[in-house]
Amino acid sequence: MKNDIFNFRRFGKYFTSDLRTCVANYALSLLTMAVLTPIATYALISGFAYLMGGSWEGPGVRTRAFIFFMMAVCLVVTMPVKCYGKLTEKQYGSFWLTLPASRLEKFISMIIITCIIAPIAGFCIYLGIDAIISAIDPTCGEGLMATGINYFRNAGEFIDEIGGELTLNFGNEKIPVEDRTLSMDILRQMNNPWLYIDDFFAMSLPFLLGAIYFKKGKTVKTFLALAAIGTAASAIMAPAMKEWAMRIVESYDADMLVYNMFNSGLFRHFALIDTISDTLVNLAILTGIWFRIKTLKH
Q1: Strand partners, 170
Q2: Of the candidates 210, 216, 14, 171, which has an alpha carbon nearest to the alpha carbon of residue 98?
Q3: pLDDT tens digits, one per residue of 131-188
Q4: CA of 255: how far to CAs of 3, 181, 228, 249, 252, in Å?
């Protein structure tokens, strides 16, 4: 019975086949975005700077970081549709259902390729090209990968240095901030790069669900669904957040308001709350993907 649900050997064969299919469907698009985007950005901005100012100057870190972010969004949005959008078509969907693998194996393979392999491949290629360009042309500054590593390292050292000396100016008074309290704890939590991994999954999974759920207009309908859900969530949460803020304002004296607010459980356990909320959202979307696969019929 267990072999009917999950078998490592069978999963390996199916995963290899699934990966080959995704490479055939999406490799060209991925390479176009990951290779040509940084090169085109460098050529256009440097050429424009030379024509306008007479000096060769490559794009700075902020410009390249923005382009990298846009490339990441395009990858997350387009990859699921290219690789798994055909499952809603009768001919391909029927063929996919008959492949010799359990639904669990197909589900796991789909998640690994969509949320791990494709993004890592695209990001590594892009950042590698960006590092080569930065090494060739010093006017660009550091590569994005080196900049990110230095940012987290320097931010951590800065937080440790000022941790025991920070004071908060509130009106005419200075409120001392103890080490590992108030903004120091929050900054330490936000400075952890692992905190943002579940956020990236939360970006990838909705478009995978949209790719296998909607039959037409998959990307547009996914964006519309996300906008509708976000609007509904804001309408529900806004009164609760307003009431929470009013309770804080009414409960504390003005001189200690900011101090007590940042020392409340919501801020002191920011990383834990963020991880739990993102995990619950990801589990909900994964459940939707699983039941869509389970109920997929043609």
Answers
A1: 173
A2: 14
A3: 999 999 888 888 888 888 777 676 655 555 544 444 545 445 554 544 445 556 666 6
A4: 65, 17, 40, 11, 8
Confidence (pTM): 0.79
Q: How far apart are CA 130 and CA 132, in angstroms?
A: 5
- Decide: 270 and 186 in contact? Cβ < 8 Å: yes
Distance CA 125, CA 290 (A): 31
**Residue 28 in contact with residue 122, Cβ under 8 Å?**
no
Pick from 31, 38, 58: which is nearest to 46 by CA?
A: 58
* pLDDT (tens digit per residue) in 216-255: 889 999 999 989 988 887 787 777 777 666 666 665 555 5
| SS3 annotation, the chain | CHHHHCCHHHHHHHHHHHHHHHHHHHHHHHHHHHHHHHHHHHHHHHHHHHHHHCCCCCCCHHHHHHHHHHHHHHHHHHHHHHHHHHHHCHHHHHHHHCCCCCHHHHHHHHHHHHHHHHHHHHHHHHHHHHHHHHHHCHHHCCCHHHHHHHHHHHHHHHHHHHCCCCEEEECCEEEECCCCCHHHHHHHHHCCHHHHHHHHHHHHHHHHHHHHHCCCCHHHHHHHHHHHHHHHHHHHHHHHHHHHHHHHHHHCCHHHHHHHHHCCHHHHCHHHHHHHHHHHHHHHHHHHHHHHHHHCCC
Domain definitions of the chain by residue range: 2-295
Name the nearest CA neighbour of 255 among 173, 181, 138.
173
For 167, phi then psi, to 5°, come to -130, 150
